[in-house]
Design brief:
The complex is a heterodimer of chains A (162) and B (115). Chain A has two domains: 44 residues, no CATH class; 108 residues, 3 helical TM bundles of succinate and fumarate reductases (Up-down Bundle). Chain A is 81% helix and 0% strand. Chain A has seven helices and no strands. Classes of the chains: A mainly alpha (162), B mainly alpha (115).
Amino acid sequence: MYVRYFSMLAVAIRTFALAYSAGYNRVTYKDKQRDPSAVSKQRPKNLNLFSIRLPIPAIVSILHRISGVILFLLIPFLLWGLNLSLSSPEDFDELHLFLTSPLMKLLIWGCLSAFIYHFVAGIRHLLMDVHLGENLQSGRLSAKLTLFISIVMIILVGIWLW
Amino acid sequence: MVKSVLGVHHPGLRDWVIQRVSAVVMTVYTIGLVLFLVMNSRVEFADWHGLFSHWWMKLATLLCVLSLLLHAWVGVWTVLTDYIKPFVLRLILEVLVYLALITFFFATLLILWGV
């Protein structure tokens, strides 16, 4: 008699526990009964980044990261240029000649683009720190503005370079 | 007892503050440098060298480069932590970045010293 009550209680607890976990895993109790591995099989999982369309704030974010890594790699070249530009008039002129060659101009435009983008996207971050553009709508707007402003600035710098 | 808000128990918060403060320092320096370049249409060696021979420019440059290196450290640390999963490889890369940044700092000191 007692054994029967206990087994009923155990079944009730198990049912409750499974129903509770089903809320998280989207697996019903029936699925669980049919196939014990259903939990791991049916959990939605998508690790293929190329099938996910990134929302605009995510694009702005990943570009901020990529431009940051590029700028980090440029630090030694920046210091090399600073050193040369300050050592002597001859070195200054030589550096000037080197940097104004067509290929180098293009490269410098690329580097400045990374800087400008990182700068503008960083300002967006600082504005978010003072609670500007924190919700979804304004976040998307500021992401679009970041792209727009940096493209305009990159074009202006290109005009200034040539 | 008052606990330090930015102490060793909150490395994340410390990094967060470093990233923001260094960003503001570099922003101010950049705007200043761009203004100098815009106001002097043709910058010769004498102008450039003259600008960097002022003590306040040396101080500002050193402060900016220090901010840049700290900023780069926080950024690169974050990127390495996100993408490099094997601990030993990550540690090696972190040490290399750390040594590079320290080298850059002393290189900057030498460059500014020579002006």
